[in-house]
């Protein structure tokens, strides 16, 4: 049986990682993913071809045990916490403190921990409340004794949101919410559930699924991220077409602040009762208080779930298809378009073909590239997940196939759709594997109007090339992109950027500088600062380009109203120092 123990710093489960199983081949350990246990001989050659540098299996970067600074403990505060919580639910253990002081920003956090020596400031104590009453008591103790509280959910953010401010002199208390994971009530008559905020996406789906329901929120991080974290970052999931983004799913939520508890008593349906305090919770990033529970919309489990895939001659054809699908009104639960580089990355994760399967693959390639004239370097591919009643799913598939034919697309099959959808849960393991061999990589996202998609992608590609040359990056940089969510007025574009850090004095610093340069280029060409990752600390400097001065002051005034002493002093977004 697979262990649910997580790696203390890298992404995911401790029993799952990529490793070399030959000089030119890798395999994924464990049993939990479709990739697990299979040998993948095409991945290393593809990466070397894209980056123009060799991947040397014999030369992994040596990891160092990160130094953990001693805790800064307020004795009166510690005495108060000891009276509130049993010893097994509070800790000053260095391993626990460090694990609660970062998210999953690969180059800015994980590589810095494993290869760069650690952080100057980390959480001083970790506490684990089990109910809302304990959360209120922890907040009261922090007010009385002058502590800094940092809510902690799944620790999956990639925005630097959990990095502790180095100038914070107070005791920093990480409030780990993961023991608060109960489904408190299911209202079948009104299709709602009251759920504690520390529940993970996987546990939420298991609990609701046992009752015949689903929440439907499926971000890439759903195995680990929590309901409270989704609200705090204003998250989006892969099936948002059917179930909505987090702001559509959450009917009401409870926030415990130094000024008291913020919540609105209202029915599950829409209400017009003036300005909504709930709206401040979305994207609050730990600045205002602790989200303890939420009333969420739930749905009966779909009668049928069907996968599909299409291959297009070019990315522009795929974009036109996505726009036509939205106009048609037959949106599947999930529809994602990848460019040629990302398509080829997915293909490189296949096991070696043998026998009948190898013959079938060869015939398909000859038909696609030889007979139909598709070009591997310019094509695009789309994966689809259709959910609902059998009638709904059948209608969606008919509409998708008809629109795909208009776009001169080729049906890629259900299995390719299923495989493409499931690969998203393993991508971060690839990132961490290649970091051991000097390749730095991370993903970032934006939302873009329909008429700016190709412009933004092309501008980012050009900027990466020029910035890499200017900074002496060896080989070639890699940029792939995919459209993951669509809207009436635009889409979410998700980028993956990578290059070799070999020979650079500070690979992480170079990566950060290039990513920031690309972020500015994206803004200049009409993209947003973020679609669903949030601001955290790595995008703070761009906020004056996004919000007017009065808008920023409004956010800061709300912060002062509920937290005048800055008890929640993590300093993310507009509340940064």
In words, what does this structure look like?
By secondary structure, the chain is α+β, with helices and mostly antiparallel strands. It is built from 19 helices and 21 strands. Among the domains are: 75-108 and 116-178, Uridine Diphospho-n-acetylenolpyruvylglucosamine Reductase, domain 2 (2-Layer Sandwich); 183-267 and 277-300, Uridine Diphospho-n-acetylenolpyruvylglucosamine Reductase, domain 3; 304-423, Alpha-Beta Plaits (2-Layer Sandwich), CATH 3.30.70. Helix content is 35%, strand content 20%. Strand 11 and strand 12 (260-262) form a beta hairpin. It is globular, with a radius of gyration of 24 Å. The two termini are 46 Å apart. The relative contact order is 0.13. The model has no long low-confidence stretch (mean pLDDT 94).
Helix amount, in percent? 25-40%
What's the mean pLDDT score?
Answer: 94
Number of helices: 19
Q: Report strand order across the widest sheet.
A: 18-15-17-16-20-21-19
Assess the beta-strand content as a share of residues: 15-25%
User: What is the CATH-assigned architecture of one domain?
Assistant: 2-Layer Sandwich
Number of strands: 21
**Distance between the ends:** 46 Å
Give the CA-based shape.
globular
Sheet having the most strands: 7 strands, antiparallel
Uncertain residue ranges: none
Question: What topology emerges from the helices and strands here?
Answer:
Layout: E1 18-22, E2 25-28, E3 39-40, H1 43-51, H2 75-84, E4 90-91, H3 94-99, H4 106-116, E5 125-127, H5 132-145, E6 148-152, E7 172-176, E8 183-187, E9 192-196, H6 201-209, E10 213-214, H7 227-233, H8 240-243, H9 246-249, E11 250-257, E12 260-262, H10 278-281, E13 290-297, E14 299-300, E15 304-312, H11 315-328, E16 334-338, H12 340-348, H13 355-371, E17 380-388, H14 390-406, E18 410-411, H15 414-423, H16 427-435, E19 439-449, H17 453-470, E20 478-486, E21 490-500, H18 507-524, H19 549-562
Parallel strand pairs: 5-7, 6-7
Antiparallel strand pairs: 1-2, 2-3, 4-5, 8-9, 9-13, 10-14, 11-12, 11-13, 15-17, 15-18, 16-17, 16-20, 19-21, 20-21
